[in-house]
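To: structure subgroup
Subject: Chain for Friday's discussion

All,

I'm putting the inputs and outputs inline so they're searchable in the archive.
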Amino acid sequence: RDVDEARDRVLMGPERRSLVVREADRKVTAYHEVGHALAAQLLPHANRVAKLTVVPRGRAAGYMMPDADDRLHVTRPALDDMIAVALAGRAAEEVGYGEVTTGAQNDFQQATGIARRMVTEWGMSGRIGKVALASDESGYLGGAPQLAAMSEATAQLVDEEVRRIIDEAYARALALMREHLGQMHEIVRVLMSRETLMGEEFSVLLAGGTLPPLGEEPASSGGGTLAPA
């Protein structure tokens, strides 16, 4: 528990339980984070869910934390899934909550950054080709790349390719949210009640199982309930 709290504090900041949050804001946060979690758990090349919560921490109203995964090389399908996971929070708001909010700002920045690097640095656009249009000296998947000089036509093509990648990923996220809408509503209900779900608990709910009451251990591992580790 202490290690988990230390990790969250370093990555996200201290808890803000004294913050008074309207029930409507908690609900939209729950849909947003469950959307991220559904995409992370269901897309084949995404990192699975480690934790999701609606407890405010740092500047975040809630968050979904994926499992840590050290990769030397990141494949195109994995990058596509990263973008879809980032956009799935907005997709869940649209499909499950019925409204979109300002909560996806950082998600859009993350998704657009990955898509732009796919096009300008990693040669993953058929229309641009295997041409480096940006450089980054700060390390793999990190830092702000510096765009090289390019023609107006090439810059427009880069923008079109980035938009295409984003639009395709968002369409995937929307389809996933619609397919699992019933599970989304149920998981949101449980998350708002419990405030935090660990990855194993989320997996149980996604599979249609139930969780034991807070503070109790399940009697057995059968029946789709969460078994003790």
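Points worth raising on Friday:
Residues 219-229 have pLDDT under 50 and may be disordered.
The chain is about 50% helix and 5% strand.

D.
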